[in-house]
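Rotation project, supervised by the postdoc (A.L.). Task for the rotation student: set up a whole-complex structure prediction and record inputs and outputs verbatim in this book. Inputs entered:
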Amino acid sequence: MSETNGNSKSKLHGLWALTNRELKKWYKAPVIFMLSIIQPILWMGLLGKAMNIGAIFTGTSFPLPQLNPPLTPQQLQQLGGYFAGLQSSIMQGAFSTTDYFSFMAVGMISFTALFTTMFSGMSVVWDRRLGFLNKALSTPVSRAVIIFSKVLSASLRSMFQAGLIIVVAVAFGLQFGANFSPLNILGVFAIMFLICVGLSSLFIAITIRSTRIETPMAVVNLINLPLMFASNAFFPTKFMPDWLQTIAKFNPLTYTTDAVRQLLIFNTDWAQLALDFTYVGIFAAVVATIGIVLSWRFLSK
Amino acid sequence: MSEATIKAEGLTKIFNKHLVAVDHVNFEVKAGEIFGFLGPNGAGKTTTINMLITILKPTEGKASVLGFDIAKQNYNVRNVIGVVPQEYTADEDLTGLENVLLCADLYGIPRSVAKERAMDLLKLVELTDFKDKKVQTFSGGMRRRIELACGLINRPKVLFLDEPTLGLDVQTRTATWNYIRKLKKEYGMTLFMTTHYLEEADALCDRVAIIDHGKIVVVGTPEELKHGLGGDVVTLSIKEDFDVSEIIKKVEHVKDVKKEDGSYRIKAEEGEITAPLIIEALRKKGYTVSKLSLTEPTLNEVYLEYTGKSMRDAEESREAFAAQRMAMRRAHQ
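Outputs recorded:
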């Protein structure tokens, strides 16, 4: 018998099959699919519109001290104009954009990357428990492919959600930067892909030896919010205490978020953008390599 | 093929440095035979199979499948084997056909070939009508069959079946046996299976290895093993109230006589020849045989002989097994 002769000898065979298996669980399950669409919209709507930081600096948001003699309507109007100017310059200084919603909506893209990829570790544990992992391991498919299919499916999901967030954010009033061009959207997908590869490799590397679903849950609960808030996703790092700034400076989410802002809402600083891409790219390459090495060591016992 | 299809030499697996799951086992499986690993839960059957299918690394010893070393040439081994695991591993969210095609992709089988093969296999396991139904709607028997179809997608030369009928009803079990026999007969496949059902080993396997506490205690055809016990069992009683053990012992072919509750349990080679001789000997001395039965020994007696406990007793230690299994699962944590 020599039927195996026609089979693919490529080291990557099975990658798309396994990735598609993961994706089918998502796009073929209407409830899960809908939830994954609703979730970022809900978060963006709530966080972005609730934390209306810009409004704090308008003249009517705080009581003016009683002045003697009282201000004339003309002076009041003048003061209002002054505050409006103040608001826009404070916002510009703090957030590099006058619209907090735009600032936040972009942060939401990083947030989605984090929340979607962190479940890739769990799916490895599920596969182990249900025996699917053992079955896959007994086929000629490469161990690295098994892991990378998880990484890839999480990345594709996040990229889809990122695209969706951009669409919704525009509908909610996202203000694009001065030199925005539709090509920048491709850049957003590129940086999303890099950060997702890095993050999901990270979560898989942490949980690869785990046989219990509780372990990745605990890990995820421990690190997701700290990782989120020790970044510039919702608030600029320059107002953070030094120690937090240091953490944020190493946090790849900071660079991802910055890259997306440079591409969408800021006046693009190309040098800064190049730095962002380099940092996130190195992060992704290093963590993905670690994940693949670990998969060789620990998938079989 | 001159060399054995599967060959294990001193194969050993120790979990966590002290839990010896498989203890220096040696065996050979010949081409085209159904070889069974028989033993209670926790005896080391699945651990052995997992080493042979290259998902567990042996702690010591070596083994080869079709001449490929399971440790050094694991990629080649995986290419030529099929595996039907103990668990239901098919993806519940996918349909029957999607599952089989997924397995085909894992072997790198081109789509055009895979589709045709998948349809053939679904026909073989009688799931053609359910190919577009999600696996979560399948019954236990259907799931087992979809596993079988997946395990056969690469036309393996050696098929590993881990407890293929575990938890199936009698009807489905018999049907599964028929599939297995068909594979051997029509495709000349070599099959390695584990089971803890004695009747399954007896009905299916060409040769059986009884494994207990990680060690192989005996290997042979079911017939050999049963004959190895000293042949058939003749049970008789006589009208007279007198101990005739000595008379029976002197009869040709009789190996052992035990008196139990007024009847005699006689072990003899070829019972159907020996039984008339016993009756004749007793009649000559003036005794009358009132009852006589002849039974062939079952694997259960073989099992009892070699492990010192009946299969049922072994089954009762399931809680101990559960604890051990837990320890094994956590061993690598």
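Student's summary: Chain A touches chain B through 35 residues (CB under 8 Å).
Supervisor addendum: The mean pLDDT of chain A is 84.
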